[in-house]
Each structure stands twice: as C-alpha cells, then as structure tokens.
Amino acid sequence: MAKLASTSRKIVDAMVPSKAFDTDGQLLEALQEGSEILQNVTDMFAPLMKNFRIYFFWEQQKTDFGTTRKYVVKEHSAAPILDDTERAGLPYDHRGMCRFESRTAPGYRLVVAALMTYTLNAPSTITQRWVSATGMLKAKRDTEAAELLQ
Length: 150
What we know:
By secondary structure, the protein is mainly alpha-helical. 51% of the residues lie in helices and 11% in strands.
C-alpha cells in the first residue's frame, strides 16, 4: 500500500506545483514495508516493549481506495505475535478502526475494556517503578560517593 502511495506521490509531484499540494514523500517512503527507517524504529522499540502493556489491533476489512480495495496495514505487521502482548482484529477498514458509531458498535467494548484494564492497573505499576527507580538512583549515588572517597 505504501508503494502505491509513493508511486502516486511521484506522479502528483511531477504534475502539480509543490506549493499547491504537499505529498510528504519522505513519510510515505519511511512507512513502506521493509523500509530501513521503519526497521530502525522497530529495532529501537523492541527492547522497550517489556516496560509497557501492549494491545495490538488490526483492520479486518480492506480499505476502499476507489479503484482498489487493500489492507493499509496487514495483520502480521499491525499485530505481531509477541510474548506478553494482547491482540485483536477490529471489523473495520483502516479509516474506521477508531470511529465507533455507538457504544454498541462491534469492537467498542473490547477497546474500552483494554483501556479500562490498563488504566486501573497503572497506579500500582507506576508506584512500583518509582520505588525501583528511587532505589537504583540511591545505589548509583552511593557508588559515586564511594568512588570520590577513594
């Protein structure tokens, strides 16, 4: 999908003055599956994942682009199977994934339940992390002080 957008951008860029229409080609190219930038972001985020509760959602319907229907982000990319993460498909296209028509719309309760669970668990998690960080900072300062006294 990003490749199609990138090609379309190049056509528009060639035909339309840049001040009339900005297609932001660097962003489109960075989001292409397999791009170096996207891989770098993924590589930098991977070690941090253990610090967060992560719930992956993906589109279950293809997005209509007028002449074609495609997934903007495929399931394997949007919701990789990883330890200690949750994942679920939502019965919408890419545009509609976060636009629930009502509180009874499919997927709404699932998303709200995930947000409520994470919100309710956050205070105790934050408290534990503050205690841990305070202990590590104290140990570091004690070590630095001991080194200065040597």
